[in-house]
UniProtKB/TrEMBL annotation:
This is PGFS reductase. PROSITE patterns: ALDOKETO_REDUCTASE_1, ALDOKETO_REDUCTASE_2, ALDOKETO_REDUCTASE_3. Belongs to the aldo/keto reductase family. Residues 121-135 have a biased composition (Basic and acidic residues). PANTHER family: 2,5-DIKETO-D-GLUCONIC ACID REDUCTASE, NADP-DEPENDENT OXIDOREDUCTASE DOMAIN-CONTAINING PROTEIN. The lineage of its organism: Eukaryota, Metazoa, Chordata, Craniata, Vertebrata.
Length: 439
């Protein structure tokens, strides 16, 4: 059940059914502009219902002609609160609308989700032809339109892990993407562009949003759960005896029967000093818990993140199930050659994060020069440099054009000389965390 006021919900919140729509049940959505006035009773926001509009479209805001309820959202929301089922538009229109005393414009993101006309809430108040920066839904830019032709190539690029599981070499990172609307929009355009691998983690706090979005979007593109690859990670705070329950919690948040790849996010236990030898014991306990869930079919493959060669060797000496993936920071300024060779020797797939050096490497003169040579963008050069060496990448973006641009790298190849020149940029520079001091 959804929480009532006595369960910790904010005053004035409506209780609702447990089934019928995928909603955030513990963190109630409240627009910032609502806090500037008296509290009012609002209906839960419809996050993932195709065709649903923002409930802020009200007669009080829009006037008696009801321009804000062109698809009957208020009608259907009232029906949903009483029955737990979202009726079709035709059925919803027959019900009596619910009127909520809320002012404010609908967000452009929800306009985009509604699949409406693309007009913003201010458009009827402007001169003909005048546009506003927030008007309408996302549009497919040039990069997106061009990338549509390469979706098949991108989906065909997979790596066979050491246990036989096929893993896409290209995926979407989701670090710091937490807002439900943004997650939905980002995954929608990514699936359209051919992304089939999605990387999340407990510490990202977006597992539930990603699970909800995928459950809604997969049917839209004719996909099944087996057609996508989901990676999640064990948080440093959950090392040790808490690992098994933390793994199960990730599965519950994603709301899937299994996760394709589950990683230990960090070799150290949160709260312990880096040099504390207890870190080794916690890592061992965590891996044992993951092996148990792997045997039970909850994980298709296991791996680690931010491990050094010494951490990997320690794990290989004691594990029953061999790690299939190592995810680390890897880019032209941090070419970890010894680590890559160690992984290749032990049949461990290396996957890179921060492939663009947190945006710094796209400004490198050498990368820009190569981008002009191949008629590509600097980001595409950097990503191709990695994948051409068999290294997986998971670039993160919420921009539709960049999401499309990033994956459009399978129609060209860098020469051996160009790869060598890019390698020469190596300076041992880390833009993220350094695990070398972890005992």
């Amino acid at each position: 059940m959804w929480p009532s006021a006595g369960d910790g919900a904010r005053p004035g919140r409506l209780r609702g059914p447990e089934e019928g729509v995928c909603l955030l049940q513990t963190e109630w959505w409240r627009p910032s502009w609502l806090d500037r006035g008296p509290r009012v009773q609002v209906a839960p926001q419809c996050l993932f219902i195709p065709g649903a509009r923002d409930f802020r479209h009200t007669r009080k805001c829009w006037g008696e002609d009801d321009r804000g309820d062109t698809d009957g959202f208020r009608v259907r929301s009232r029906h949903f609160r009483h029955t737990g089922v979202w009726p079709p538009l035709s059925a919803g229109k027959q019900l009596e609308p619910i009127r909520l005393p809320i002012k404010g414009p609908p967000s452009s993101s929800q306009q985009w989700m509604s699949g409406g006309s693309g007009q913003s809430w201010r458009e009827d108040r402007r001169r003909p032809g005048q546009r506003h920066r927030d008007c309408g839904p996302w549009t497919l830019g040039d990069s997106v339109q061009k990338a549509l032709g390469f979706c098949v190539d991108a989906m065909a690029q997979t790596i066979e892990l050491n246990n036989g599981v096929q893993m896409p070499i290209f995926g979407l990172g989701t670090f710091r993407i937490r807002d439900y609307d943004v997650v939905f929009q980002t995954l929608d355009i990514a699936l359209k562009m051919g992304y089939r691998s999605f990387d999340t983690a407990t510490v990202y706090r977006n597992e539930h949003a990603i699970g909800c979005a995928l459950k809604t979007l997969l049917p839209k593109y004719g996909l099944l759960r087996k057609d996508i690859f989901i990676t999640s990670k064990l948080a440093p705070k959950d090392h040790g005896l808490e690992a098994e329950s933390a793994c199960n919690h990730s599965l519950q948040q994603l709301d899937f029967d299994f996760v394709d790849l589950y990683l230990i996010h960090w070799p150290g236990k949160q709260g312990l000093k880096a040099e504390d030898a207890k870190n080794k014991d916690y890592r061992k306990q965590s891996w044992k818990a993951m092996e148990k869930l792997y045997k039970n079919g909850k994980f298709r493959a296991l791996g680690v993140s931010n491990y050094t060669i010494s951490h990997l060797q320690e794990l290989l000496d004691k594990c029953e199930i061999k790690p299939a993936v190592l995810q680390v920071e890897y880019h032209p300024k941090l070419v970890q050659t010894d680590l890559l060779k160690f992984c290749q020797h032990n049949n461990i797939h290396l996957q890179a994060y921060s492939s663009l050096g947190v945006g710094n490497l796209v400004l490198e003169p050498k990368i820009i020069e190569l981008a002009k040579k191949y008629k590509k963008t600097p980001a595409q050069i950097l990503l191709c440099w990695a994948t051409q060496q068999g290294i997986g990448v998971i670039p993160k973006s919420v921009n539709p054009d960049r999401i499309a641009e990033n994956i459009n790298i399978f129609d060209f190849h860098l020469s051996t000389q160009d790869i060598t020149e890019i390698n020469s940029l190596n300076s041992g520079t880390r833009y993220c965390w350094d695990p070398q001091g972890i005992a």
